[in-house]
TrEMBL record:
The keyword Transmembrane helix applies. Pfam families: AA_permease. This is Amino acid transporter. Residues 22-460 form the Amino acid permease/ SLC12A domain. It is a multi-pass membrane protein. The lineage of its organism: Bacteria, Bacillati, Actinomycetota, Actinomycetes, Kitasatosporales. One of its GO terms (biological process) is transmembrane transport. Coiled coil: none annotated. It comes from the Bacteria. One of its GO terms (cellular component) is membrane. The chain crosses the membrane at residues 12-35, 41-60, 81-109, 129-149, 161-181, 201-220, 232-254, 288-311, 332-354, 360-381, 402-424, 436-458. It is found in: Membrane. Keywords: Membrane, Transmembrane, Transmembrane helix.
Length: 495
């Protein structure tokens, strides 16, 4: 692939994938359902392990830039089965994310049409809260972003940067106004996580908060297309810190204008509600326009890392060769990008069976949140294992290379394990609703089980060298274990 990207491009991809405006617009009401007025405290608490994960990514990327990121690093540091599972849950999680984000994009478009007075077309009610019509409109958006992703990541990041500038100007303008004119009194208890009602509510809110931060690691998926490997790391870390600031500003602003009941009740339309509270039309529609830009950019930036992760797996023959075909003109994994779009579209159509968009979003967020905690934790653990010699090289190296990554991994594993236990014991029957524990466990369990099945096929049918050596077919290009701080990797013996 062509090395044409810099820090700015990595930042645009990471920020677009995290989708601050979308996360604030549809996520604050969901967090409030679990954390109440302590949403800002929850966002700060969740940031701590995520920062440790991001530093682990940067450390691994410095010595082994690979568009497979966690898939490659975990496979070569812990083992190929864990590595494949990391790559698989990222691939499947992104496809599910694109499926529901497409529906969110469609819902925002329908809200625009409703504001223009268009409520029916050919007898069909244009209800933004309905999954079916929102998904149909979202499929059109999915096709558009796929075309732009195929024509080259450079042009895609330019578009994303323009969308980001617009949405952040609008978001900060309205949130700044809300902080000043809001009539809900500020309280220091908003920053106290011990005020959250129960351990279960804290754990559930933490998983959703981790999901809200998810996406900054998309910058590492283009580390083979950046002019310098460190550019991807800088872009991802800058985006993550910026997201913390934006999320806190958004949380404080929403709580200054809305009480907890209003936040929960408005759900995905909370940002639109905020705009209507603060300004008359047509200015009140600006947050809705920003939300549409954010959802569109997030869709596009999700296609990019998903196709590149599949490309890395195909190079190791753990996935089929179709995933590694590059476009002769644009240098992008075009066939893989189209396949990702097709899978997301198929899943979006199947999800129409969940009639309410709110329920669809909550189901997807809970499922992806658990798998994100799994693969983030595995990648941080890979950092601690690979750089374990840091124990003997001083306290700073030990803290940076071992302690922080291991503590971050254990925090996410503990959070995920506690929620799995809660889900398994909270229901006595199965029902396809987001408040049924068995249903909440079903999708993450399917992610893992299908991943293990595909890994078994790759090992014993495809006979992928990745499962024999942990190195893959590109081992001559990308060496393996570390040799001290120099960043050079010592080549292992073939025996």
């Amino acid at each position: 692939m062509r090395r044409s990207l810099g820090v700015k491009d990595g930042l645009a991809i990471a920020a677009s994938s995290t989708a601050a405006t979308t996360s604030i617009g549809i996520g604050m009401g969901t967090l409030a359902a679990y954390a109440g007025r302590q949403t800002p405290a929850l966002l700060l608490l969740a940031f701590l392990p995520i920062l440790g994960i991001a530093l682990s990514y940067a450390r691994l990327n410095r010595t082994e830039p690979n568009c497979g990121s966690g898939y490659t690093w975990v496979g070569r540091s812990i083992g190929p089965w864990s590595g494949f599972l990391t790559g698989w849950v990222v691939l499947v999680g992104n496809v599910i994310f694109m499926a529901y984000t497409g529906a969110v994009t469609g819902s925002v478009v329908l809200q625009f049409l409703n504001k223009l007075g268009v409520h029916r077309v050919l007898g069909l009610r244009l209800d933004p809260a309905a999954t079916g019509i929102s998904t149909a409109v979202g499929l059109v958006a999915l096709v558009v972003v796929t075309v732009t992703a195929v024509t080259g990541v450079r042009s895609a990041t330019r578009m994303q940067l323009g969308l980001l500038i617009f949405e952040y100007v609008v978001l900060l303008g309205f949130c700044g106004c809300a902080l000043v004119v809001g009539d809900q009194p500020f309280s220091l208890s908003w920053l106290d996580p011990f005020e959250i009602g129960s351990p279960q509510a804290l754990a559930q809110g933490m998983v959703i908060a981790v999901f809200i931060y998810w996406g900054w690691d998309a910058a590492f998926s283009v580390n083979e297309e950046t002019r310098s490997a460190s550019d991807a790391a800088r872009g991802g870390l800058i985006a993550l810190i910026a997201m913390l600031g934006l999320f806190l500003v958004g949380a404080f602003a929403f709580q200054r204008v809305m009480n907890t009941g209003e936040l929960i009740r408005n759900g995905p339309q909370a940002l639109t509600f905020l705009g209507g509270r603060l300004a008359p039309e047509p200015w009140a529609s600006l947050p809705l326009a920003a939300l549409m830009c954010s959802a569109f950019a997030s869709l596009q930036s999700s296609v990019i890392p998903t196709a590149r992760g599949a490309l890395a797996m195909a190079r190791d023959r753990t996935l089929g060769p179709v995933w590694q075909r590059l476009h002769p003109r644009y240098g992008s994994p075009a066939v893989g990008t189209l396949l990702v779009m097709a899978l997301a579209a198929l899943l979006a159509v199947l999800a129409v069976g969940i009639p309410k968009l709110n329920d669809m979003i909550l189901t997807a967020v809970n499922s992806i949140g658990l798998t994100v905690a799994l693969y983030y934790g595995l990648t941080a653990l890979a950092c601690a294992v690979r750089f374990r010699d840091g124990w003997r090289q001083g306290p700073v190296r030990a803290l940076r290379d071992v302690v922080v990554p291991a503590a971050s991994a254990l925090a996410l594993f503990g959070l995920g394990g506690y929620l799995v236990w809660q889900y398994a014991t909270m229901s006595d029957h199965f029902e396809a609703t987001p408040d049924n524990g068995w249903f909440m466990l079903l999708l993450p369990a399917l992610f893992v089980l299908t991943g293990l099945a595909v890994a078994a096929w790759a090992k014993w049918v495809r006979r992928a060298p990745y499962f024999r050596t942990g190195r893959g077919t590109d081992a001559d290009a990308i060496p393996l274990p570390m040799d001290g701080e120099s960043g050079r990797l010592a080549r292992p013996s073939e025996g």
